[in-house]
Write a structure and sequence with these properties.
By secondary structure, this protein is α/β, with parallel strands linked by helices. It folds into two domains: 126 residues, Lyase, Ornithine Decarboxylase, Chain A, domain 1; 228 residues, Alanine racemase (TIM Barrel, Alpha-Beta Barrel). It is 30% helix and 22% strand. The strands form two sheets. Strands 1, 10, 11, 12, 13, 14, 15 and 16 form an eight-stranded mixed sheet that branches. Strands 2-3-4-5-6-7-8-9 form an eight-stranded parallel beta barrel, surrounded by four helices. A hairpin with a 4-residue loop joins strand 10 and strand 11. Helix 4 runs parallel beside helix 5 and helix 5 packs across helix 6. The structure holds ligand LLP. Ligand LLP binds next to helix 10. Pfam families: Orn_Arg_deC_N. Its cofactor is pyridoxal 5'-phosphate. This is Diaminopimelate decarboxylase. It is an enzyme of class 4 (lyase).
Length: 386
């Protein structure tokens, strides 16, 4: 799409940097995910943390997805957008009392609880507001997600979930708390997982823990296996839609369950990453001692992933490519006063000049939501392709 001169001319009219959202691609992606999930009677709660742009959320809500939230504000936002309360879950290791009360008052489907103390606090607050809270207990399964260590969450060393050694005690606390009801078990082992075998290992652990509870007479209605399905950052045009069939197939095959038990997913990135592109203008070109620099009007303040995780995002020049032009290597950097403000080193691009448009692809997930106004930057701008 970014090789198209019509798109280029439209974008040249806009102030940059901006987040370009391809709502047609988003719709196709959502339809593919929903179809693959419905076929197996699986439920998807979209993880708002990946992108909580109103237009994106409205489309996701209209397709019948639930919402997976990690703050009181995300819970409120889901309600405002129109997600039904019975399709909203609230996760996170550090829920404040105020946030818990907000969620209780909205009568959301369930809290994903991460510690014994949190169980006790939710029980107490539910008693105070006269509600009964559904909870899913997050278990840390100690499964290696084989992904960047900053986004792996299911290892013993991570802060998430209740460790195996504490489960006996957690089960006893749940039984003794009057205002909470255990509906499910919750797992999430990491993000940007491209090796589907990781999910197979997760299923083995889920089965073990479900049996552990059932052997003790506790019925588990919901198996929430989290999110984490990765996307193709290298080839966004070739693989714009993740292989949801293959992903769900793993769980269908390896999760032991009865027809009454529900399987829930919390996908974020896989649904929204490819529909977003950060569009930026070249402010300056400069030859350093060893490098050619492209200095953009977008920086780590608009897209932090490369600076934070050395994440790869494909970088392209927008507009029709002229055949036979020799490409150059550029370090593509932003205007922020930090050396880590770099989108890519030695990026091969056609020769660029001041005013050219650059696309930084696959930025729909954990892009706009992680923006900051460091250096007192402008609010994020948008362009919706529909
Ligand atoms: N459920 C839980 C409990 C999570 O912690 C996460 C993501 C998700 C679901 C959604 O995971 P997804 O399907 O999007 O992989 N900022 C990082 C990613 C952080 C992921 C945090 N948790 C990045 O830019 O790569």
């Amino acid at each position: 799409m970014f090789k198209n001169d019509i798109i280029k001319n439209n974008l040249l009219q806009q102030e940059t940097p901006l987040y370009f959202y391809d709502l047609r691609l988003l719709e196709k992606t959502l339809d593919a995910a929903k179809k693959a999930a419905d076929k197996r009677n699986f439920h998807i709660h979209y993880a708002l943390k990946a992108n909580f742009n109103d237009r994106i959320l409205s489309l996701i809500q209209s397709k019948g997805f639930g919402a997976d939230c990690v703050s009181g504000n995300e819970v409120q936002k889901s309600i405002d957008i129109g997600f039904p309360a019975e399709k909203i879950t609230f996760a996170g290791v550090g829920k404040s009392d105020k946030e818990i009360i907000t969620a209780l008052k909205h009568k959301i489907f369930a809290f994903n609880v991460e510690s014994i103390q949190e169980l006790e606090v939710i029980n107490e607050l539910a008693g105070q507001v006269g509600e009964k809270a559904n909870v899913s207990l997050r278990i840390n399964p100690n499964v290696d997600a084989h992904t960047h260590h900053y986004i792996t969450t299911g290892l013993d060393e991570n802060k998430f979930g209740v460790p195996n050694s504490e489960l006996e005690k957690a089960a006893a606390v749940i039984n003794s708390c009057e205002n909470i009801h255990l509906v499910g078990l919750h797992f999430h082992v990491g993000s940007q997982i491209t090796d589907l075998n990781v999910f197979k290992s997760l299923c083995v652990k889920v089965n073990e823990w479900k049996n552990w509870f059932e052997e003790r007479g506790t019925y588990i209605k919901v198996l929430n296996v989290g999110g984490g399905l990765g996307v193709d950052y290298k080839y966004p045009d070739e693989n714009p839609i993740p292989d949801f069939e293959a992903y769900f197939d793993i769980f269908d095959k390896f999760l032991e369950r009865t027809s009454q038990q529900e399987v829930h997913f919390e996908l974020g990135r896989a649904l929204v990453a490819q529909c977003g592109t950060l569009v930026s203008k070249v402010l300056y070109t400069k030859s350093g001692v060893k490098k050619n620099f492209l200095i953009l009007d977008a920086g780590m303040t608009e897209l932090m992933r490369p600076a934070l995780y050395q994440a790869y995002h494909k970088i392209e020049k927008i507009g029709e490519e002229i055949a036979g032009v020799q490409k150059l290597n550029y370090d593509v950097v932003g205007p922020i006063c930090e050396s880590s403000d770099c989108f890519g080193k030695e990026v091969e691009l056609p020769p660029c000049k001041r005013g050219d448009l650059i696309a930084i692809r696959t930025a729909g997930a954990y892009g706009e939501v992680m923006a900051s106004n460091y250096n007192l930057r402008n609010e994020i701008r948008h362009y919706y392709y529909e």
